[in-house]
Predict the structure.
Amino acid sequence: MKRLTLVPLVALLTIPSLCLSGKEDTLPNEVRWVRESGEYANLCRQTFRLAQDAVREQVRNSSKQKIALVMDLDETVLDNSLYQVERHRLGLGFTQDSWSVWVKREEAGLVPGVKSFLSFLRKHPVRVIFLSNRMNENLEPTKSNLRKLGVLGKDDLFLLRMDKQDTKIIRRAEITNGTGRMKKTGPFFVVAYFGDSMGDFPIPSGEAFGKTHFMLPNPMYGKW
Ligand SMILES: [Mg+2]
């Protein structure tokens, strides 16, 4: 009987000390890991650093005329962990409406390492194509956010989502075939894909990762 009474006592002693340890400490572990850990930041930087070598090699060896690099935006280029913090503090989860409000605020930050990677790309004959499931109606605030962060290139292309049927598979095919929205530019040879979700990549497993496919960590949300 004595053992049973100990459990609530320990809980009572522990809970107030957790509450007093600051608001950030009450965040879910996965959000804290992204916002505060050196592990997350270094893992992102490591990915971009390795990608830089691989892309340099791909560009050097490619005989193709028009080369592109396809990047997802959220949690690949843009850091939206503040949105996660705010939703958590409100006790609410993701909704399309609150997400759209967040996107229009243009307050997303940058994933560690992406700025220097993008400036490396600007020195090479590679077209950057941002392929994101942000809705196309939010194209302007998205560009504006990237501009404020100093990572928007004047020739960058955007393939955002028109509607539910407009999958990334469809948009990737437009890039490689030069069809649909890519009719004006013509087809591109894609040297690398970057994303935080399996849906960002044409080959979902195997040796492509680390060579032409580069994954960024995102423990906060996903379809796993
Ligand atoms: Mg993403």
About this structure: The beta strands are 67-71, 78-79, 109-110, 127-135, 157-161, 189-195, 213-215. Confidence is low (pLDDT under 50) at residues 1-24. The pocket of magnesium ion is lined by residues 72, 74-76, 195-197 (CB under 6 Å). The first helix runs from residue 2 to 19.
